[in-house]
Write a structure and sequence with these properties.
This protein is mainly alpha-helical. It is built from seven helices and two strands, in the order ββααααααα.
Length: 136
Amino acid sequence: MPRIIGVDIPEEKKILIAIQYLYGVGPARAKSVLQTARVDEDKRAKDLDADEINRIQRALDGYVLEGDLRREVNDNIDRLKRIRSYRGLRHNMGLPTRGQRTRTNSRNARGSSGHRRTVGSMTKEMAAKLEAAKSK
């Protein structure tokens, strides 16, 4: 399993797809990195030799990726929270920050609990047991 910038990439996938497993590498960046490194994008990751992996690694050195990029993104979000901007407040509340509708269709952000939870009806026996427990 080849390792690039400290991350194991899947060996059965084509290298164009495999290097997208790195945080901060999408389709366009993957294509440009492989062109810079002069590596065939249809080649499987397991078929790469050490020289090709080194060329890919050198091509990726010019970008902010993985831990540094995650830290940068989290610092930006923390700054928004600290200055109490609208986007920062939305991040604090765990709500969508980019203008999406929340009156409906925001179940992931708002959570399924809380508002308007459906409650099933009880059988007569369950209702009688509940009454008996309350009266004790």
